[in-house]
Amino acid sequence: MPTTTGTSVIPANPAIRRFVHWVADPGVTSVPQVRSRVRATLEAWAVPLEAADVLLLAVSELVGNVVRHAGAGRMRVAVASGVGWLCLDVADQGAGLPRLPAPRAEADLESEGGRGLLIVQLTAAELGGELSVVAREFGKSVRVRIPAA
User: CA-CA distance, 60 to 52, in Å (whole number)?
Assistant: First the structure.
């Protein structure tokens, strides 16, 4: 089970009101465990259902991608909220960077894989949000940021 490594309110940065994160070894059981923790956090923060659904879909897809593609190492999942926005960040120590879908891309309905990032990107965009990838010194971070309203 993922271990909680921090839950805190960060008053030094007024842009961030709430922040929680977990660090875990990526494994098949990580997906439902992390999703459950993110769901509980969003419920505790009284996040509107539409925004919560987008972030829960995103956490399932992004953690699933870490399990399938990142290999060894630790995974970090964070949820933050600020004035008017919510952010989900899934980081891993894998070397490869995911390819973000092209703007206006369409899902191949016959494909058995490779649609997760596109689906996350499209659902986030429907709310006025975005999907991004950040290369880090030791891995990468995939972030979904959406309006909180």
Answer: 12
Query: What is residue 88's DSSP assignment?
Result: E
Contact between 86 and 54 under an 8 Å Cβ cutoff? The reply is no
Residue 105: predicted pLDDT: 56
- In tens, the pLDDT along 108-128 reads 555 555 678 888 999 999 999
pLDDT of residue 8: 36
Report pTM.
0.81
Among 135, 19, 139, smallest CA distance to 74 is for 139
Q: For residue 85, list its beta bridge partners.
A: 82, 147
Q: Strands, DSSP E only, in the chain?
A: 3-8, 16-24, 75-82, 85-92, 130-136, 139-147
- Count of other CB atoms within 10 angstroms of residue 50: 12
List C-alpha distances in Å: 42 to 78, 81, 86, 102: 12, 10, 10, 29
